[in-house]
Write a structure and sequence with these properties.
The protein is α/β, with parallel strands linked by helices and about 300 residues long. The chain contains six helices and 17 strands. The protein folds into two domains: about 180 residues, FAD/NAD(P)-binding domain, CATH 3.50.50.60; about 120 residues, FAD/NAD(P)-binding domain. Strands 1, 2, 3, 4, 5, 6 and 17 form a seven-stranded mixed sheet that branches. Strands 8-15-9-10-11 form a five-stranded parallel sheet, with helices on one face. Bound molecules: flavin-adenine dinucleotide.
């Protein structure tokens, strides 16, 4: 069992690392529990073009490694451990990890959300800069003047498809059913857009290419026929899994498993002294900058909580 920390930050993605920078600069000497993916999702991409301050883009791994150095410079400490359970009952919160148990006055949970994949051939090989993406806002601009496919039929898939029409010539929307699951208004906007070509009753069988994606093969779920579609990019929009289950006993979750925030607060939860930041509490924006933003907010409020200012 550790001494009582002032603040423990769970997760070392953009949200956790930014919280660590702010908390360390507030002289709280935060302890960051890094989890299985130090640096978070951004380490999976070579090219981040939308994080402010980098006119020529920045490698995702490098960006988060620098955030960690920045936090360490002001006294943040990092442990290589993973949370498996928590006890948020009393004033001192208990964080039970694989290797150790930590005690803390305040906790910032920044555990992110993992994108879902299809598990088809070619998906892993071409992921991260070679044509398979999970984020149109992040990668859409790389496909200017090209044809792409979006996989999914919910609101997220429709939003991704519409966003991609800003750059792409054709956007194939691959959906396993014969109607969209998205809201009526969103569905109408998608089906009314001439650049979007719905491919109904179809699932992706394989993502094809040599060095990068050159097309996909889809299978019709009704007659089992297979068709090849030429495209340069495939955007998976089949959902995310928020990494929140270890906290569900204490922190309220919404229907999709994301943390709920207190009304009128970006980062406060139903438990005093426990704050949430980043993608684990955000199914709308899911960006490095928004995660960093809420990480900063969580650290500022954690400091106020510890000093009994809120
Ligand atoms: C391939 C790819 C490319 C992207 N490109 C861009 C881009 O160009 N621009 C952009 O703005 N956004 C991009 N994004 C989105 C961006 O990466 C995320 O919005 C951002 O990383 C979210 O940060 P986060 O800190 O909330 O969560 P994450 O980055 O998901 O980090 C979560 C952290 O929590 C830790 N963790 C999870 N569970 C536990 C546990 N039980 N115990 C301890 N630790 C735990 C993990 O180890 C990890 O360190 C991209 C995402 C992907 C997947």
């Amino acid at each position: 069992m550790s001494d009582i920390e002032k603040v423990v930050i769970i997760g070392s993605g953009c949200a956790g690392l930014t919280a660590a920078i702010y908390a360390s600069r507030a002289a709280l000497s935060p302890l960051v529990i890094g989890g299985l993916q130090p640096g978070g999702q951004l380490t999976m991409t070579n090219e981040v073009e939308n994080f402010p301050g980098f006119p020529n883009g920045v490698n995702g791994f490098e960006l988060t490694a620098n955030m960690k150095l920045q936090a360490e410079r002001f006294g943040a400490r990092f442990v290589d451990d993973t949370v498996k359970d928590v006890d948020f009952e009393g004033d001192i919160k208990k964080i039970i990890c694989e290797r150790n148990t930590y005690l803390s006055e305040a906790v910032i949970v920044a555990t992110g959300a993992s994108p879902k994949f299809l598990g088809v051939k070619g998906e892993k090989e071409f992921f991260g800069g070679k044509g398979v993406s999970v984020c149109a806002t992040c990668d859409g601009a790389f496909y200017k003047g090209k044809d792409v496919a979006v996989v999914g039929g919910g609101d997220t898939a429709c939003e991704e498809a519409l966003f991609l029409t800003n750059f792409c010539t054709k956007v194939y929307l691959i959906h396993r059913r014969d109607a969209l699951r998205a809201s009526k208004l969103m569905g109408e906007r998608v089906l009314g857009n001439k650049k979007i070509i719905p491919v109904w009753n179809s699932v992706v069988d394989e993502i094809m290419g040599h060095d990068k994606v050159s097309g996909i093969r889809v299978e019709n779920v009704q007659d089992k026929s297979k068709t090849e579609i030429a495209c340069s990019g495939v955007f998976m929009a089949v959902g995310h899994i928020p990494n929140t289950q270890q906290f569900a006993k204490y922190l309220r979750l919404d229907d999709s498993g994301y943390f709920c925030r207190k009304e009128n607060s970006f980062v406060e939860t139903n438990v005093d002294g426990v704050f949430v930041a980043g993608d684990c509490a955000d199914k709308v924006y899911r960006q490095a900058i928004t995660s960093a933003g809420t990480g900063a907010m969580a650290a500022i409020l954690a400091e106020k909580y510890i000093c009994k200012k809120i």
